């Protein structure tokens, strides 16, 4: 097939369902900036907006055989962004409640500052341990993105891989680490209840 830019969204979706990567790239380039801008206006955080949009596009590729819209791709993408932002706000609200609860506990107990530092160091060590436990390539890409603050494009160029691969690896790493972090917050919350 010649150029993909002249194809309609529906034609591109049908090609994506057949695992046509060029059709996926066309959709990505056609809509990335639009939905990124929409996400950024709501979040006012470039990294969070970029993560949400990258995650949505990764989901489109991974679920291409079963979960793509039959029409109105733009509406589908904007709805997906809205839902991810709602999920993020709900998650942040719960996380803030747990952290505030932990702070209240620490402020109300003698010796808490030292105890707090010990727990904080333990948490940092646990997070680093989980990062080291990631598969080698995933860990390398994640650290380049989050610790060295390189863009997906810069990482792709340095490692000679596609930006899509970088996005997938970062999103997978975040998914694993968020699960572990939520577990840590839950454990700290339980400790607060136990030692009340």
Mean pLDDT: 78
The end-to-end distance, rounded to whole angstroms, is: 67 Å
CATH class of the largest domain: Mainly Alpha
| CATH architecture heading of the largest domain | Orthogonal Bundle
Query: Roughly what fraction of the amino acids lie in strands?
Result: under 5%
**What is Rg?**
20 Å
Helical percentage: over 70%
Describe the structure.
It is built from eight helices and no strands. With 196 residues, the protein is mostly helical. It has two domains: 1-108, Orthogonal Bundle (Rna Polymerase Sigma Factor, Chain: A), CATH 1.10.1740.10; 110-196, Winged helix-like DNA-binding domain superfamily/Winged helix DNA-binding domain (Arc Repressor Mutant, subunit A, Orthogonal Bundle), CATH 1.10.10. Helix 2 (21-43) packs antiparallel against helix 3 (46-62), helix 2 (21-43) crosses helix 4 (73-107) and helix 4 (73-107) packs parallel to helix 8. It starts with 8 loop residues before the first helix and ends with a helix. The model has no long low-confidence stretch (mean pLDDT 78).
